[in-house]
Amino acid sequence: MSEFDYDLYVIGAGSGGVRASRIAAGHGARVAICEDSRVGGTCVIRGCVPKKLMSYAAHFAEDIEDAAGFGWQIGETRFDWPRFLQRKNAEIDRLNQIYLKLLANSGVTLHEGQGRLLNAHTVEVAGRQYTAEKILIAVGGRPVKPEFPGHELSLTSDDIFYIETLPRRMVIIGGGYIAVEFAGIFNALGSEVHLLYRGEQILRGFDADVRRTLAREMAAKGVHIHLHAEVQAVEKKGEERVVHLNTGETLSVDTVLCATGRVPRTEGLGLDKAGVYVNEKGEIPVDHDSKTNVANIFAVGDVTGRIALTPVAIQEGHAFADTQFGNKPWCPSHENVPSAVFSQPPVASVGLTEGEAHTLHESLDIYLSEFRPLKHTLSGREEKTLMKLVVCRETDRVLGCHMVGPDAPEIMQGVAIAIQCGATKAQFDATVGIHPTAAEELVTMRTPARSGH
Asked: Is the pTM of this model over 0.70?
């Protein structure tokens, strides 16, 4: 008989924690998991999934407009925000139930409440204590607000999914993927949107051509992008929120959304009592096996500060469970991880940006194409699609691929497989394109737009 209640105790029932617990239980481990919110985590409950549903809703605005160019006569339209919220919430409830069933069917015990470490082998949840041979921390992150007078008058990305009324005018603070996604969504749904970013261009960390192209297209769709803009204060006047900027300008809106990033939810976990090291950012550093500085305590997902993407957390959790309980050791790769931004239009990337590639390789060839998609020859829309390949001239290997335009995320998933396999530009060129599609441009770009050393 083991001296512990469980072989594995998982703190946090998001995507990474649920995957790890299920796989470990499948290997025969006695597993328990705790969660102080709804099972499913940020992505399912208050992140990727509801935001993607909002993105779908927003896209219908342009689809209806474009239909006229193809001969459709559509009468008066109206977007029903309460109806959408009802449908969206019902779907999140359904997914939550699926996650609960997945845990139960896998033989994982669920404890409701926040887990807190008392020592390296003991977790306290809702006043009860449980011991485990190994502990996995998978608590994810939470949104943060910048400090300015009146910040309490603003919402976070967690809040915005449940507002009862569609904003007429709104300010979104931030320039990362969360900010630009919500800017595109609410703009398309009919809100007047002002995006405030303190930097020189939105989407810091993405390829420069992607950033330029998306900013241009968002502005063309009606989003007011304010660069080098910082909020000095927000004050309430009646039902309005008056936003004061460093430029001296003021914006009167009814909703202020802070989308300025997320931080790990490491506070209140009792990590110090277990001796787990936490860095100055609140992250839990881990090794290639997701092990912390304490031999029996591990961490996966956003809390580690590696790559804050749900599929990455799932892969990390799976690798952890196989390695620790399945006698099948393997490590997840954090290279060439594809990502998407469900902006309007969407963005997708895999591999190195042009800037990153220049720091690692002496000579590059950059293939670049901007074109008006076939659909818009009849819709009349002037929107342009961008496709870009970053190629190492010495090896001919494709180091990165970047796209702005319709279906970019769907297209990029297939390209990511090729780049992960080390595909060369010659192999791209030898691939027959599917005509007529936007994706065929990836295998028909023959002449570099520029080369660099």
From this structure: yes
